[in-house]
Design goal:
Elements: H1 7-13, H2 39-48, E1 52-59, E2 65-70
Antiparallel strand pairs: 1-2
Length: 77
């Protein structure tokens, strides 16, 4: 199982505070990455499910196809 904690949940679990994520701020310099055989389809499913498109999938010089979305709290995926 894999889950993303909302800022509200993080606030209740991390009582000493945390760096809140927000779509209005630049993404943190960390990403969560997933691999798939069909990057375009996965990207489109994520956007259809509510993710915010950041960089559409494109082929990298080393052969990997990469795209970026952000969740509603601004986490870079």
């Amino acid at each position: 199982m894999f889950a993303f904690a909302s800022n509200e949940l993080a606030s209740s679990n991390l009582t000493n505070g945390f760096q809140e994520n927000s779509l209005s701020a630049q993404p943190a310099g960390i990403e969560i990455a997933f691999t798939t055989d069909d990057v375009d389809a996965a990207f489109n499913r994520a956007v259809k499910a509510g993710a915010v498109s950041l960089v559409v999938p494109k082929q990298k010089p080393w052969g990997q196809k990469v795209g970026y979305v952000r969740d509603l709290d601004g986490i870079l995926i």
